[in-house]
Amino acid sequence: MLISKRARPTAVAxxxxxxxxFVETQRQQLEVERSRLQGQVRSLNAATGRLxxxxxxxxxxxxxxxxxxxxxxxxxxxxxxxxxDVEIALRRIELxxxxxxxxxxxxxAEARLAALPATAFCVPCQEAGELExxxxxxxxxxxxxxxxxxxxxxxS
Length: 156
Description:
0% strand; mainly alpha; disordered N terminus
């Protein structure tokens, strides 16, 4: 995800200060999610392999068979990205930096972490990143000056 190049606040500590019970609960949830996603990725990989063998055994059916395989591949890719995010969040817990925004370096609200344990961004940075992606898909590149990007966080 693209995140605007805002300066990190110097007043914010580099590590998260969180209630140890909260962090442990988050770690447990992330480990459960990791196991679930690993199983799902394995299942999708196996299903894709079986589908590939079945559909491509007859070359006449090859053109008609691409759609189901593409859907399974897309689902697997989404799960692999989620799994990657979960593993990064678990690593941050190990290193003591869980709950610090990748975009601005400020603490992420516990309510957001409770809802999205693997999130790496506070709400303002997430919204700014989504806006940048939206603008990029429309062919607009960094249309707003840096001051406007920091204002986006103030109005959220």
